[in-house]
Recover the amino acids of this structure.
């Protein structure tokens, strides 16, 4: 693992403020200049003293998971940015943990998670501030999530069942029933640093897929609230169509899904097996792809093998 560019070595006076935010941008085989929010992040850092929002960006970590470190455009660099290269590709899990360590050491109370394909709106922090202000005084927010869209499709926040089915709706979420929980895309989410610490450790196998679902499920188990802001964020889903998804990628998703589901105390082996069987039939009929059918059958045996494991 290699650190590159500039590293902020001193704890900022601003880091102790209640609204100080550390952003972590996760890259993979893409330079920072290709990140839709790159210019906006620099602008926010450059206008730190003029920011009207209580929540405000004070530092930016660019976490590069690429095999070879990506080139960095000097025009986008700011003294409050640093680049960390991990050629072993620890996924978003490694990036989030690294950011949490920095936030803890420097006293940043909030962490902003960002993928390399997310565009933040100009009013992002003001909308987050407003959402926090609507929370009752006797309740505490563990995270603030925006309304995320992929083109014309709303994708986050959503309700998710214990078997991973997501139902995205653009509404204010006031309560959840026992069979569902509120989940969101981790990218563009503001997570309170101490709340994140409270759900650690992250399962080692949740490197990328289902990490979002696991994180928001565990955060809500503490009794704190996920607050939904009015900010509209644009994000490109890496998995959109079952007809075009790579079979190896789908196997990785199924493996992560199993870890996520098994980590829930209410997990039911029988219900999972029946649900996976119904999904397999649906995948075969809708895609007519032999490789995906094989992946689903492999997933079936993985579920059976994992029955007796913790």
């Amino acid at each position: 693992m290699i650190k590159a560019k500039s590293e902020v070595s001193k704890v900022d006076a601003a880091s102790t403020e209640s609204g100080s935010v550390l952003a972590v941008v996760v890259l993979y085989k893409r330079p920072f200049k290709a990140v839709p929010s790159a210019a906006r992040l620099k602008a926010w850092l450059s206008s730190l003293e003029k920011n009207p929002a209580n929540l405000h960006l004070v530092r930016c970590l660019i976490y590069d998971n690429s095999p070879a470190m990506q080139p960095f455009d000097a025009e986008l660099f700011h003294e409050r940015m640093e680049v960390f290269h991990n050629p072993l590709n620890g996924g978003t899990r490694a990036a989030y943990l690294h950011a949490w360590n920095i936030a803890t050491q420097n006293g940043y109370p909030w962490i902003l998670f960002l993928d390399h394909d997310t565009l933040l709106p100009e009013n992002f922090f003001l909308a987050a501030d407003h959402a926090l202000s609507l929370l009752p005084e006797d309740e505490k927010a563990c995270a603030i999530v925006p309304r995320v869209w992929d083109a014309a499709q709303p994708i986050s926040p959503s309700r998710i069942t214990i078997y991973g089915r997501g139902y995205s709706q653009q509404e204010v979420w006031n309560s959840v029933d026992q069979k569902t929980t509120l989940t969101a895309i981790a990218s563009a989410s503001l997570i309170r640093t101490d709340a994140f610490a409270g759900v650690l450790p992250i399962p080692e196998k949740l490197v990328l897929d289902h990490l979002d679902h696991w994180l928001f499920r565990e955060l809500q188990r503490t009794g704190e609230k996920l607050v939904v802001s009015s900010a509209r964020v644009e994000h490109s889903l890496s998995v959109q169509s079952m007809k075009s998804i790579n079979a190896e990628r789908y196997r990785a998703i199924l493996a992560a899904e199993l870890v996520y589901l098994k980590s829930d105390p209410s997990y039911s082996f029988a219900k999972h097996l029946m649900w996976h069987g119904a999904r397999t039939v649906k995948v075969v009929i809708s895609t007519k792809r032999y490789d995906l059918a094989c992946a689903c059958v492999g997933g079936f045996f993985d579920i059976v093998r994992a029955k007796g494991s913790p």
Observations:
- Residues 1-11, 172-179 have pLDDT under 50 and may be disordered.
- The chain has eight helices and 13 strands.
- Residues 269-287 form the longest helix (19 residues).
